[in-house]
Amino acid sequence: MTPKKMFKLPESGLHGKLLLPGDKSISHRALLIGAISNGKTVIKHFLRSDDCLNTLQAIKNLGIFVEQHSTDIIIHGKGLYGLQPASQPLDMGNSGTTTRLIMGLLAGQPFRSKLIGDSSLQKRPMRRVSEPLAAMGAKIQTAPAGTLPVKIDGQPLHGTKIKLQIASAQVKSALILAALQANSPSTIIEKLPTRDHTERMLRKFGADVQTAPDKLTITVQPHPKLEGQTVTVPGDMSSAAFFLVAATIIPNSNITLCNVNINKTRTGILKALLKMGANIKITKLESQEEPVADIQVKYAPLTPIKLSAKDIPAIIDELPLIALLAACANGQSTITGAQELRFKETDRIATVAQELRKLGVQLKELPDGLIIEGQSAWQITDSTLDSHGDHRIGMMMTIAALRSTDDLLLNNPEAVSISYPNFFSDLSSLLKTRTEV
Ligand SMILES: O=C(O)C1=C[C@@H](OP(=O)(O)O)[C@@H](O)[C@H](O)C1
Ligand SMILES: C=C(OP(=O)(O)O)C(=O)O
Q1: Atom 15 of ligand 1 has which residue's CA nearest to it?
Q2: Which of 324, 412, 327 is closest to 94 using CA atoms?
Q3: In CATH, which of 3.40.50.2000, 3.65.10.10, 1.10.443.10, 3.40.47.10 is domain 4-22+234-436?
Q4: 7 and 429 in contact (C-beta within 8 Å)?
Q5: Could you give phi then psi for residue 105, rounded to 5 degrees?
Q6: Which pLDDT value is given to residue 433?
Q7: Ligand 2 touching residue 398 (CB < 6 A)
Q8: For residue 116, pLDDT beyond 80
Q9: Domain boundaries in the chain?
Q10: 163 annotated as belonging to a binding site for a ligand
Q11: Where residue 288 falls among pLDDT bands split at 50, 70, 90?
C-alpha cells in the first residue's frame, strides 16, 4: 500500500463523540468460549479486525458453524469436546492472543493440530505457554527457537498448581482453558494481576473459575457444562486510548468516548493520564460482566510520569502512547519493568524510540523501558514515519503527527486493521465535528 498522508495539527482541536469498536481481547474470548459451549452464543458489537477474524476462521476450521450478521456473530457451539481436527494448519495470522489461547484449548483435545502465523508472529515466544502446559501433560512441540510453527498432540491433561513466571493474560488464559479439560482442579498463581476477561466470561458461561481476594490465585474446576450466552462486547480501552491521548495533547480539544470497557485490569492508561494532569471525566454507565463508561477528555498540559513493573500489565498495549504523552510533558519520564514490550508485534521499545526520534523527540532506550524527555515543540528530522507492520505503532505515530504542521507520511498504514480497521475514519470524524459540540 502507498504511504498515507498524515493529518496535521488541527487548529481547533478534536471534537465530537465516538462509539469505540468492540474490545479485541473480549471478542477473541467470546469466539473461543462460544465454540466450546453448548448451543447458541450471540456476540454483539464483535470486533471485525484482522486478529479477531483469524480466531473466527480458526474455530470454523475446527468444525464450528458460525453465522455473521454485520457486527453480530452467532456461534453454534458443540461443547467442550465437540471440536474436530482441522484439515489444514490453523493460520494465526498476526495474533498472539489467538495462538496462545488456542494452544491451551487444543492441548486437551483428542487430535493433532498445527499452528502457523505471519512473519511477525513467527518471531514471538511460545514456550511461555508450551512449558507450563507440559506440566499438565500436554504434548506441544515448538520450532527450535521456541516459536511457530507449533504442533499440538492433544492429550488427556491432569490438574496442576502452577506459579507463572511472567505476568501475561495470554499465558494465564491458555492454562485456564487447558484446566477446563483436566482430570482434577487446577490452581494458577499469577505474578501480577493481568486482564481477567477469560475468568469473567467463563463464569458467565457456567464454569467454576474462582479468583481469590489476592487477585492472583485462580482455581479452575474441570469439565464444566458451558452453555451458550449473549455477549455484548464493550468498547476497547486500548483503542479509546489513541483518542484519550490525542485530545489531551492537542489544544482546544473536547471529545467523548462512548461505551468503553473500564475493567480495572485495563485502565492503567486512565490512571497514568490522570497522574500526568489530564482533564478526564468518567461517567459510569453499567457494570455487568464487564464495567463500561463514557469518558470525556479535554486538552491539558502534562507533567512527567514514572512507571515501573507493577504498573505494566494494566497498560501494556498503551505504553507506546505513554512515550508520546511523556514527550509532550514538562520534564523527564521513565518507563521500566516493561521488557515484555520487546516480544510484541515488533520490539515496541525499539520501534517507539526509532519512530518518535524522527519527530525530534529525545529518548533513551533501556533494556526494559524508556527514558523520555518532554519538550514543548519538536524538530522533525525525518518526515516518513513507519508502522513497521505494528498496528499500535502506526496508530500512535498518527496521533503524534497531529502535533506537527509538516507534511508527514506513514508507511505500512494498513497494519491498523489488525485491531482497528476504522481508525483513520474515526479520527477524521473527530477532526471535522467542531460545530456539532
Ligand atoms: O490476553 C489478551 O487478550 C492480551 C494480553 C496481552 O498480552 P500478554 O499476555 O502477552 O501480556 C496484550 O498485550 C495483548 O494485546 C492481548
Ligand atoms: C500485543 C497485541 O496483540 P497480540 O499479542 O494478540 O498479537 C496487541 O494487540 O497490542
Answers
A1: 317
A2: 412
A3: 3.65.10.10
A4: no
A5: -70, -40
A6: 62
A7: no
A8: yes
A9: 4-22+234-436, 24-232
A10: no
A11: confident
> Does any ligand 2 atom lie closer than 6 A to the CB of residue 96?
yes
- How many A from CA of 254 to the centre of ligand 1? 30
Chain segment 375-413, per-residue pLDDT in tens:
999 999 999 999 999 999 999 999 999 999 999 999 999
Nearest CA to ligand 2 atom 5: 96
* 24-232 has CATH 3.30.70.141 classification: no
* Nearest alpha-carbon partner for 116 in 80, 90, 82, 83: 90
Phi, psi of 416, rounded to the nearest 5 degrees: -60, -25
Regarding the beta carbon of 109 and ligand 2, being less than 6 Å apart is answered: no
Instruction: Please tell me whether 392 is known to bind a ligand.
Output: yes
Residue 401 is placed in which grid cell?
Answer: 503527527
> How many whole angstroms from 55 Cα to the centroid of ligand 1?
15
Q: Is the C-beta atom of 4 inside 6 A of ligand 2?
A: no
Q: Is 13 marked as binding a ligand?
A: no
Do domains 4-22+234-436 and 24-232 share one topology? The answer is: yes
Taking the CA of residue 99 as reference, the ligand 2 atom at the shortest distance is 6
**Which of 25, 26, 101, 118 has the alpha carbon at shortest distance from 59?**
101
Mean pLDDT computed over 112-126: 98
- As a whole number of angstroms, the distance between CA 227 and CA 244 comes to 37
The response to whether 82 counts as a known ligand-binding position is: no
Mean pLDDT throughout 302-312?
Answer: 98
Q: How large is the ipTM? A: 0.99
Q: What is the distance between the alpha carbons of residues 168 and 100, in angstroms, rounded to a whole number?
A: 10
Q: Indicate which residues carry an active-site annotation.
A: 317
